[in-house]
Design goal:
Helices cover 53% and strands 8% of the residues. By secondary structure, it is mainly α. The protein has one domain (4-70). Strands 1-2 form a two-stranded parallel sheet. The longest helix has 17 residues, at 54-70. The radius of gyration is 13 Å and the shape is elongated.
């Protein structure tokens, strides 16, 4: 596989799947592209910003990337 695109907002129990995805991608040397969109923003971010904003999307992407980093994906 050339690359994997992950949209955490569309994956149920995303936190539980991060380790599995990170390990498989690391072992295969496969890049991960983390996608975010306004329709799948976490409720906490919608409450914080009042609506889907560019800042909310960036915060979401950075948080999701940090989860992969915590599981050894670089």
């Amino acid at each position: 596989c050339a690359a994997v695109r992950v949209n955490p907002g569309n994956i149920k129990q995303f936190d539980d799947k991060v380790r599995e995805i990170a390990k498989a991608a690391s072992e295969a040397g496969t890049p991960i592209r983390i996608g975010v969109n306004a329709g799948s923003l976490d409720r906490r971010l919608l409450q914080k910003y009042g609506k889907a904003t560019p800042e909310a999307l960036v915060e979401s992407a950075l948080w999701e990337a940090s989860l992969f980093e915590e599981h050894g994906f670089r």
